[in-house]
């Protein structure tokens, strides 16, 4: 059944690498304003699914739709990013030798096609936007600090902020809390929920404490398909999920 109003709709996506089916007729729907957690064992296809959504990998079968009827299936990565899908990889890639503010300014300029320059004059509106992002990602007090001097968790938040500068309608976040302190992990759950008030967020994570903290709908992948989907209580009590993932 097609859901034309969904923000993202993967319809029966399959992809193989050297005969190995990384995704096996995967169907997946995200609604506008939804925050969704993706879990599953290593090799389940979580990264491949993100690669399909962002156009890094093309499906062998199936289709991908964004905002109802925009067909992403044959679009390339740059086009898909431009349409409003942002992706944060696991390792933070902030500019260590620039301040927190300058990192956000660079990201804002980049979203306008002005690369790696701080000479593009910011408008008052731009400054307000950067200030809003700073407060969203808990870095308002660190704006003049070099990114290099932030904690690992704060660097992750800064990178999320840099993605927000591009105003994505869908933000994909890969293992944000890996290596974070417990306090940063809890704060990240709150922060992502705030971000999801104005856009959709898909977060891939292994940290079950964090997933419980999020308290949102969970999709568990295994062998390239959806094994179970629903509340964390529902998914984590599913015998198939225990056997394939949690009980390992
Ligand atoms: P997960 O992120 O859930 O750990 P992946 O999507 O990374 O799972 O991988 C799913 C399967 O596809 C794995 O067995 C992996 O080795 C394989 N795979 C993923 N990407 C490639 C690739 N580019 N080339 C070959 N095999 C790949």
TrEMBL record:
This is Urea ABC transporter ATP-binding protein UrtD. It comes from the Bacteria. Residues 8-248 form the ABC transporter domain. It holds the Pfam family ABC_tran. GO terms for molecular function: ATP binding; ATP hydrolysis activity. The keyword Protease does not apply. InterPro entries: AAA+_ATPase, ABC_AA/LPS_Transport, ABC_transporter-like_ATP-bd, ABC_transptr_urea_ATP-bd_UrtD, P-loop_NTPase. Signal peptide: none annotated. Keywords: ATP-binding, Nucleotide-binding, Transport. One of its GO terms (cellular component) is plasma membrane.
């Amino acid at each position: 059944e097609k859901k034309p109003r969904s923000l993202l709709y993967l319809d029966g996506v399959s992809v193989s690498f050297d005969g190995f089916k990384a995704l096996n007729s995967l169907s997946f729907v995200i609604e506008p304003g939804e925050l969704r957690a993706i879990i599953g064992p290593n090799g389940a296809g979580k990264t491949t699914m993100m690669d399909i959504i962002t156009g890094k990998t093309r499906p062998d079968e199936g289709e991908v739709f964004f905002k109802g009827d925009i067909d992403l299936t044959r679009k390339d990565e740059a086009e898909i990013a431009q349409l409003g899908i942002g992706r944060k990889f696991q390792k933070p890639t902030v500019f260590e030798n620039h301040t927190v503010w300058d990192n956000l300014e660079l990201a804002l300029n980049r979203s306008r096609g002005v690369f790696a320059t701080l000479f593009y004059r910011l408008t008052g509106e731009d400054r307000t936007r950067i200030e809003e992002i700073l407060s969203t990602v808990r870095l308002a007090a660190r704006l003049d600090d070099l990114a290099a001097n932030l904690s690992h968790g704060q660097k992750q938040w800064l990178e999320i902020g840099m993605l927000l500068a591009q105003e994505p309608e869908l933000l994909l976040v890969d293992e944000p809390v890996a290596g974070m302190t417990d306090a940063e992990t809890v704060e990240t759950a709150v922060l992502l929920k705030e971000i999801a008030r104005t856009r959709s967020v898909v977060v891939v994570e292994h940290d079950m404490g964090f997933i419980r903290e999020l308290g949102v709908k969970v999709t568990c992948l295994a062998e390239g398909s959806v094994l179970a989907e629903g509340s964390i209580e529902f998914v984590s009590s599913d015998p198939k999920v225990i056997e394939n993932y949690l009980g390992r």
